[in-house]
Amino acid sequence: MPLPEQLEAILFDPTTGKVLAAVVGVLIIYGVRRFIGRTLTSRVSDNTARYRTRKLVEFASYLVMALVIATVFSDQLGGFTVAFGVAGAGVAFALQEVIASAAGWVAITFAGFYKIGDRVMLGGIKGDVIDIGVLRTTVFEIGEWVAGDLYNGRVVRLANSFVFKEPVVNYSADFPFLWDEITVPLRHGSDRAKAQEILEGAATQITGEYASQVQSTWDKMTRDFVIEHARIQPMVTVVADENWLTYTVRYVTDFKARRITKDKLFRHILDALDATEGTVSLASGAQEITLMPPSVVDVSLREPRSA
Protein backbone atom coordinates (compact mmCIF):
# COMPACT_ATOMS: atom_id res chain seq x y z
CA MET A 1 0.00 0.00 0.00
CA PRO A 2 1.67 3.27 -1.07
CA LEU A 3 2.36 5.92 1.57
CA PRO A 4 0.52 9.24 1.41
CA GLU A 5 2.48 11.92 -0.37
CA GLN A 6 2.79 14.14 2.71
CA LEU A 7 4.04 11.30 4.93
CA GLU A 8 6.43 10.16 2.22
CA ALA A 9 7.76 13.69 1.90
CA ILE A 10 8.35 13.90 5.63
CA LEU A 11 10.06 10.51 5.87
CA PHE A 12 12.39 11.09 2.95
CA ASP A 13 13.11 14.72 3.75
CA PRO A 14 16.84 15.31 4.47
CA THR A 15 16.01 17.34 7.58
CA THR A 16 14.05 14.42 9.02
CA GLY A 17 17.00 12.14 8.46
CA LYS A 18 19.30 14.57 10.24
CA VAL A 19 16.92 14.87 13.18
CA LEU A 20 16.78 11.09 13.49
CA ALA A 21 20.56 10.84 13.24
CA ALA A 22 20.97 13.48 15.95
CA VAL A 23 18.47 11.71 18.23
CA VAL A 24 20.16 8.34 17.74
CA GLY A 25 23.57 9.89 18.38
CA VAL A 26 22.39 11.55 21.58
CA LEU A 27 20.83 8.31 22.83
CA ILE A 28 24.01 6.36 22.11
CA ILE A 29 26.14 8.93 23.92
CA TYR A 30 23.73 8.89 26.87
CA GLY A 31 23.96 5.10 27.10
CA VAL A 32 27.76 5.17 26.91
CA ARG A 33 27.80 7.83 29.63
CA ARG A 34 25.66 5.72 31.94
CA PHE A 35 27.86 2.68 31.34
CA ILE A 36 31.14 4.54 31.88
CA GLY A 37 29.76 6.35 34.93
CA ARG A 38 28.66 3.16 36.63
CA THR A 39 31.89 1.35 35.79
CA LEU A 40 34.23 4.09 37.00
CA THR A 41 32.30 5.10 40.12
CA SER A 42 32.02 1.49 41.28
CA ARG A 43 35.80 1.22 41.22
CA VAL A 44 36.50 4.50 43.04
CA SER A 45 36.22 4.29 46.82
CA ASP A 46 36.94 7.92 47.73
CA ASN A 47 33.77 10.05 47.83
CA THR A 48 35.42 13.19 46.44
CA ALA A 49 37.14 11.34 43.59
CA ARG A 50 33.90 9.49 42.75
CA TYR A 51 31.97 12.77 42.63
CA ARG A 52 34.56 14.42 40.38
CA THR A 53 34.61 11.40 38.07
CA ARG A 54 30.84 11.44 37.71
CA LYS A 55 30.80 15.18 36.99
CA LEU A 56 33.62 14.87 34.45
CA VAL A 57 31.82 12.07 32.59
CA GLU A 58 28.59 14.09 32.52
CA PHE A 59 30.33 17.22 31.23
CA ALA A 60 32.19 15.27 28.55
CA SER A 61 28.97 13.60 27.40
CA TYR A 62 27.17 16.94 27.04
CA LEU A 63 30.10 18.32 25.06
CA VAL A 64 30.09 15.34 22.70
CA MET A 65 26.31 15.64 22.26
CA ALA A 66 26.69 19.28 21.28
CA LEU A 67 29.43 18.41 18.79
CA VAL A 68 27.31 15.65 17.23
CA ILE A 69 24.30 17.95 16.79
CA ALA A 70 26.48 20.73 15.37
CA THR A 71 28.10 18.29 12.93
CA VAL A 72 24.78 16.88 11.73
CA PHE A 73 23.27 20.30 11.09
CA SER A 74 26.51 22.06 10.08
CA ASP A 75 25.35 22.79 6.51
CA GLN A 76 22.22 24.55 7.79
CA LEU A 77 23.85 26.79 10.36
CA GLY A 78 25.58 29.18 8.00
CA GLY A 79 22.48 31.12 7.08
CA PHE A 80 21.61 31.75 10.70
CA THR A 81 24.93 33.37 11.67
CA VAL A 82 23.65 36.95 11.76
CA ALA A 83 20.42 35.95 13.48
CA PHE A 84 22.36 33.97 16.05
CA GLY A 85 24.62 36.96 16.66
CA VAL A 86 21.74 39.35 17.32
CA ALA A 87 19.86 36.81 19.43
CA GLY A 88 23.03 35.98 21.33
CA ALA A 89 23.53 39.63 22.30
CA GLY A 90 19.98 39.84 23.63
CA VAL A 91 20.28 36.57 25.49
CA ALA A 92 23.61 37.63 26.99
CA PHE A 93 22.05 40.84 28.33
CA ALA A 94 18.97 39.06 29.71
CA LEU A 95 20.95 36.21 31.23
CA GLN A 96 23.95 38.13 32.51
CA GLU A 97 23.56 36.66 36.02
CA VAL A 98 23.45 33.15 34.57
CA ILE A 99 26.56 33.86 32.49
CA ALA A 100 28.31 35.29 35.55
CA SER A 101 27.42 32.13 37.49
CA ALA A 102 28.84 29.96 34.71
CA ALA A 103 32.01 32.08 34.74
CA GLY A 104 32.09 31.65 38.52
CA TRP A 105 31.95 27.88 38.05
CA VAL A 106 34.99 28.09 35.76
CA ALA A 107 36.83 30.17 38.37
CA ILE A 108 35.88 27.79 41.18
CA THR A 109 36.97 24.77 39.15
CA PHE A 110 40.32 26.04 37.89
CA ALA A 111 41.31 28.72 40.45
CA GLY A 112 40.79 26.49 43.48
CA PHE A 113 38.48 28.70 45.53
CA TYR A 114 37.11 25.55 47.17
CA LYS A 115 36.26 21.95 46.40
CA ILE A 116 33.78 19.32 47.47
CA GLY A 117 34.08 18.64 51.21
CA ASP A 118 35.59 22.02 52.13
CA ARG A 119 34.10 24.00 54.98
CA VAL A 120 33.42 27.51 53.73
CA MET A 121 31.50 30.69 54.40
CA LEU A 122 29.85 32.06 51.26
CA GLY A 123 27.64 35.11 51.33
CA GLY A 124 27.25 34.82 55.11
CA ILE A 125 26.30 31.11 54.88
CA LYS A 126 28.68 28.74 56.65
CA GLY A 127 28.76 25.03 55.92
CA ASP A 128 30.30 22.13 53.99
CA VAL A 129 30.31 22.13 50.19
CA ILE A 130 28.40 19.06 48.95
CA ASP A 131 27.94 19.94 45.28
CA ILE A 132 29.40 22.37 42.73
CA GLY A 133 27.14 22.85 39.72
CA VAL A 134 27.60 25.01 36.65
CA LEU A 135 25.27 27.66 38.08
CA ARG A 136 25.04 26.97 41.81
CA THR A 137 27.06 25.72 44.76
CA THR A 138 25.22 23.60 47.30
CA VAL A 139 26.21 23.93 50.97
CA PHE A 140 25.06 21.85 53.93
CA GLU A 141 24.74 24.57 56.54
CA ILE A 142 26.19 24.65 60.04
CA GLY A 143 25.56 27.09 62.87
CA GLU A 144 22.64 29.51 63.09
CA TRP A 145 20.54 28.19 66.01
CA VAL A 146 22.98 25.27 66.53
CA ALA A 147 26.19 25.99 68.44
CA GLY A 148 29.58 24.39 68.05
CA ASP A 149 29.83 24.30 64.22
CA LEU A 150 27.33 21.44 63.95
CA TYR A 151 24.93 20.77 61.07
CA ASN A 152 21.48 22.33 61.37
CA GLY A 153 19.93 20.33 58.52
CA ARG A 154 19.44 23.11 55.97
CA VAL A 155 20.70 22.74 52.40
CA VAL A 156 21.57 26.12 50.87
CA ARG A 157 22.18 26.76 47.16
CA LEU A 158 24.11 29.87 46.17
CA ALA A 159 24.75 31.31 42.70
CA ASN A 160 28.37 30.88 41.63
CA SER A 161 28.52 34.55 40.60
CA PHE A 162 29.08 35.53 44.25
CA VAL A 163 32.79 34.60 43.97
CA PHE A 164 33.27 37.84 42.01
CA LYS A 165 31.27 39.96 44.47
CA GLU A 166 31.96 38.75 48.02
CA PRO A 167 34.84 37.24 50.00
CA VAL A 168 35.16 33.46 49.92
CA VAL A 169 36.16 32.15 53.36
CA ASN A 170 37.64 28.64 53.28
CA TYR A 171 38.27 26.91 56.60
CA SER A 172 40.01 23.87 55.14
CA ALA A 173 41.90 24.76 51.96
CA ASP A 174 45.61 25.29 52.64
CA PHE A 175 45.57 25.03 56.45
CA PRO A 176 42.77 22.68 57.60
CA PHE A 177 43.14 23.72 61.24
CA LEU A 178 41.81 26.56 63.39
CA TRP A 179 43.08 28.42 66.40
CA ASP A 180 40.56 28.26 69.19
CA GLU A 181 40.42 29.33 72.84
CA ILE A 182 38.72 28.47 76.10
CA THR A 183 38.69 30.54 79.30
CA VAL A 184 38.88 29.09 82.81
CA PRO A 185 38.16 31.41 85.81
CA LEU A 186 40.02 30.43 89.01
CA ARG A 187 39.74 31.83 92.52
CA HIS A 188 42.30 34.19 93.96
CA GLY A 189 44.62 32.24 96.23
CA SER A 190 44.74 29.19 93.93
CA ASP A 191 48.12 27.60 93.25
CA ARG A 192 49.05 29.44 90.05
CA ALA A 193 51.95 27.18 89.12
CA LYS A 194 49.72 24.11 89.47
CA ALA A 195 46.98 25.78 87.45
CA GLN A 196 49.44 26.57 84.66
CA GLU A 197 50.66 22.97 84.67
CA ILE A 198 47.12 21.55 84.52
CA LEU A 199 45.98 23.76 81.66
CA GLU A 200 49.13 23.33 79.55
CA GLY A 201 49.09 19.59 80.15
CA ALA A 202 45.44 19.28 79.11
CA ALA A 203 45.95 21.24 75.89
CA THR A 204 49.09 19.31 74.97
CA GLN A 205 47.50 15.93 75.64
CA ILE A 206 44.22 16.61 73.84
CA THR A 207 45.64 18.34 70.75
CA GLY A 208 48.89 16.39 70.58
CA GLU A 209 47.36 13.61 68.45
CA TYR A 210 47.78 15.68 65.29
CA ALA A 211 50.61 18.01 66.36
CA SER A 212 53.03 16.66 63.74
CA GLN A 213 50.43 17.11 60.99
CA VAL A 214 49.82 20.69 62.10
CA GLN A 215 53.55 21.42 62.06
CA SER A 216 54.13 19.98 58.59
CA THR A 217 51.10 21.82 57.17
CA TRP A 218 52.22 25.10 58.72
CA ASP A 219 55.75 24.65 57.34
CA LYS A 220 54.25 24.26 53.86
CA MET A 221 52.15 27.40 54.41
CA THR A 222 55.24 29.46 55.27
CA ARG A 223 56.96 28.21 52.10
CA ASP A 224 54.02 28.98 49.81
CA PHE A 225 52.91 32.32 51.28
CA VAL A 226 54.47 35.42 52.80
CA ILE A 227 53.20 34.95 56.33
CA GLU A 228 54.70 35.75 59.69
CA HIS A 229 55.55 33.09 62.23
CA ALA A 230 52.71 32.00 64.49
CA ARG A 231 52.81 29.78 67.53
CA ILE A 232 51.08 26.47 66.89
CA GLN A 233 51.89 24.92 70.26
CA PRO A 234 49.32 25.37 73.07
CA MET A 235 49.65 28.61 75.01
CA VAL A 236 48.22 29.59 78.40
CA THR A 237 47.86 33.23 79.50
CA VAL A 238 46.29 34.80 82.58
CA VAL A 239 44.52 38.05 83.40
CA ALA A 240 43.72 39.06 87.00
CA ASP A 241 40.94 41.34 88.19
CA GLU A 242 39.08 41.96 91.45
CA ASN A 243 36.86 38.92 90.94
CA TRP A 244 39.11 36.03 89.83
CA LEU A 245 42.03 34.89 87.72
CA THR A 246 41.02 34.32 84.11
CA TYR A 247 43.19 31.77 82.31
CA THR A 248 42.95 31.55 78.51
CA VAL A 249 44.03 28.36 76.77
CA ARG A 250 44.86 28.86 73.08
CA TYR A 251 45.39 25.82 70.87
CA VAL A 252 45.13 24.54 67.29
CA THR A 253 42.40 22.07 66.42
CA ASP A 254 40.97 20.37 63.35
CA PHE A 255 38.43 22.55 61.54
CA LYS A 256 35.69 19.96 62.06
CA ALA A 257 36.50 19.16 65.69
CA ARG A 258 36.10 22.46 67.55
CA ARG A 259 33.26 21.35 69.81
CA ILE A 260 34.71 17.89 70.43
CA THR A 261 38.08 19.40 71.36
CA LYS A 262 36.46 21.86 73.77
CA ASP A 263 34.50 19.07 75.41
CA LYS A 264 37.63 16.95 75.90
CA LEU A 265 39.58 19.90 77.29
CA PHE A 266 36.96 20.91 79.83
CA ARG A 267 36.44 17.32 81.02
CA HIS A 268 40.18 16.83 81.44
CA ILE A 269 40.60 20.17 83.24
CA LEU A 270 37.65 19.61 85.60
CA ASP A 271 38.94 16.17 86.59
CA ALA A 272 42.42 17.61 87.21
CA LEU A 273 41.03 20.47 89.32
CA ASP A 274 39.01 18.03 91.45
CA ALA A 275 42.22 16.06 92.09
CA THR A 276 43.94 19.13 93.61
CA GLU A 277 41.54 18.96 96.60
CA GLY A 278 40.92 22.70 96.64
CA THR A 279 44.41 24.07 96.00
CA VAL A 280 43.16 25.10 92.57
CA SER A 281 39.46 25.80 92.33
CA LEU A 282 37.03 27.38 89.92
CA ALA A 283 35.66 30.85 90.62
CA SER A 284 32.07 31.87 90.19
CA GLY A 285 30.10 35.06 90.60
CA ALA A 286 28.05 35.32 93.81
CA GLN A 287 25.66 37.87 95.25
CA GLU A 288 24.97 38.25 98.97
CA ILE A 289 21.68 39.74 100.13
CA THR A 290 21.78 41.36 103.60
CA LEU A 291 18.46 41.71 105.44
CA MET A 292 17.88 44.75 107.64
CA PRO A 293 16.90 44.02 111.25
CA PRO A 294 13.19 44.55 112.00
CA SER A 295 12.20 47.92 113.48
CA VAL A 296 9.06 49.09 115.25
CA VAL A 297 7.46 52.31 114.13
CA ASP A 298 4.83 53.97 116.37
CA VAL A 299 2.13 55.22 114.09
CA SER A 300 -0.45 55.94 116.77
CA LEU A 301 -2.12 59.35 116.59
CA ARG A 302 -1.60 61.77 119.44
CA GLU A 303 -3.69 64.79 120.31
CA PRO A 304 -1.92 68.11 119.77
CA ARG A 305 -0.86 69.96 122.87
CA SER A 306 -3.03 72.96 123.91
CA ALA A 307 -1.38 76.37 123.78
Question: Can you walk through the features of this model?
Answer:
The protein contains eight helices and eight strands, in the order αααααββββββααββα. It is α+β, with helices and mostly antiparallel strands. It folds into three domains: 68 residues; 71 residues, SH3 type barrels; 99 residues, Alpha-Beta Plaits, CATH 3.30.70.100. The longest helix has 30 residues. The protein starts with a helix and ends in a 32-residue tail after the last helix. The mean pLDDT is 79.
What is the topological layout?
Blueprint: H1 5-11, H2 14-43, H3 47-72, H4 81-94, H5 96-111, E1 119-122, E2 125-132, E3 136-142, E4 151-159, E5 168-170, E6 177-186, H6 192-207, H7 211-224, E7 235-240, E8 245-254, H8 258-275
Antiparallel strand pairs: 1-2, 1-5, 2-3, 3-4, 6-8, 7-8
Helix pairs in contact: 2-3, 6-8
Structure summarized in a few sentences:
With 307 residues, this protein is α+β, with helices and mostly antiparallel strands. It has helices at residues 5-11, 14-43, 47-72, 81-94, 96-111, 192-207, 211-224, 258-275; strands at 119-122, 125-132, 136-142, 151-159, 168-170, 177-186, 235-240, 245-254.
